[in-house]
Amino acid sequence: MKKRVGIEALAVAVPRRYVDIEDLARARGVDPAKFTAGLGAKEMAVNDPGEDSVSLAATAAARLIQQQGVDTSKLGMLVVGTETGVDHSKPIASHVHGLLKLPRGMRTFDSQHACYGGTAGLMAAVEWIASGAAAGRSALVVCTDIARYGLKTAGEPTQGGGAVALLVSETPDLLAVDVGLNGVSTADVYDFWRPVGRREALVDGHYSITCYLDAMAGAYRGWRERAMEQGLVRWDSKLPSEQLSRILYHVPFCKMARKAHAQVRLCDLEDSGSGPATPEARDEAAKSQASYDAQVAKSLGLNARVGNVYTASLYLALAGQLHAEGAALAGQRIGLLSYGSGSCAEFYSGVVGEKAAERMARADLDTVLAKRERVSIEEYERLMNLPYDAPEAIAPEPGTFRLAEIHEFRRKYAGA
Predict the structure, then answer these.
(1) The one catalytic residue among 115, 211, 254, 267
(2) Which residue, 40, 135, 233, 414, has fewest beta-carbon neighbours within 10 Å?
(3) Which family does it belong to (predicted)?
(4) With the CA atoms of 314, 298, 12 and 409 taken in that order, what torsion angle do they form, in degrees rounded to the nearest 10?
C-alpha cells in the first residue's frame, strides 16, 4: 500500500509593515485602478533590513512548531526554498536550524531556482518520505523571499515579502500529494534574474509572462497525461482541468492567475478534438469568468494583501485557499502550478485533508495580517533606502526573529 504523504500543516510570516496599494498609485501619479484592477493588488508588504529572508523563515518555522505542537525530535530534513540568499555558501537552512535549536541528526540545505525553489524542496521532502528513506520522520520545508525592484520602477507595485513554512509528513492533514503525478517543463531562458551583488532583480516583463505560460502548458499537459493514465481525469462533458475542484497558481501578481488559468483551459480546448472550431473561439472560451471564479478567485486573498513572495507565492495561495474553504474542500482534489524563471514549471495535484480547516484555524492567519502596521509612502521610501547591512535596533516581537547585526560578515539574530 502506497504511503499517504503531503503537507500536514503550515504557518505564515510577513513583514510587520505594509503600504496600501492605492496610496502607492497616487504617490506615483498613477490611476489606482491600474494597480488594483490591473494587477489585482490591495496591499504590499514592506520589510526593513532586520526582516531578511532568514528572520522571516525562522519566524514562520517557529510559528509552525508552536501553533501545531510539532515534535522537533521527529524532524529529519529541513529545506529552505529561496532566491533571496544571504551567503554564497552558508545556507539559510543552517541559520534556521540553529535559531530553532533543531536536532543535529538532520539533512539541511537550500533549494534555489527562482520562484520554483520552494516546490523543488517540497518534492524532495515528499519523495524522501514516500521512498521510505525518512523512516517515519517528517520534514520542514520553508519558502522565504523578499521581492525587491526598487523605488519608482515598473516592478515597484509587484514587490512584497514573507515566508511560508510547511510540515511534510505521512499525516497530510492539509494536502495529500499525488506522488509521481507531476508534470514538468524546463527551458534555458533569461526572463528574470538577479546578478550576484545586486539587491534588485532584473526582469523582462512581457517575455517572462510568455515563458511562464509556455512552461506551464508543458507541465500541465504532462500532469494531465499521467492523471488520465490513473483515471483521475478524463475527456468528458467537463474539461480535464474542470475536474479539479480548485487550481492554484504561482502568483507574482494576482492578475497572473487569471492569465494562467486561461492558458490551462486553452490547453484542454486545443487538445480535446471537440472544442470550438476557430482559434479565436477557443481563446474566448478559455477566458471563462465562471471557471475562474469557481476554481481560482478565492485562493488570492492573502497574495493580494502581501504581494509577491517569489518561492512562497504558490504556498501563500494554498494558505489563502484553505483558509477560505478548508472545510468545503475536504476530500477533493486540487491542482497546483509552480513556476520559476530561468525556467522550470511543475504541475502537481493532491487531495485536501479532512482536518484542513482545523489545521488552518491554528495558523491564525487573520491575526498575522491584523497585527501589521500601515505606513505612509514617505516611511516606505525611508525603509527602502536603508542599507541592508545596518538593521535598526528594534526589539523583535515575541515569537519572531530579527537580524540584529552583521559583524565581520557574520549575521547575528535576536528573538523568539
Answers:
(1) 115
(2) 135
(3) Belongs to the thiolase-like superfamily. HMG-CoA synthase family.
(4) 40
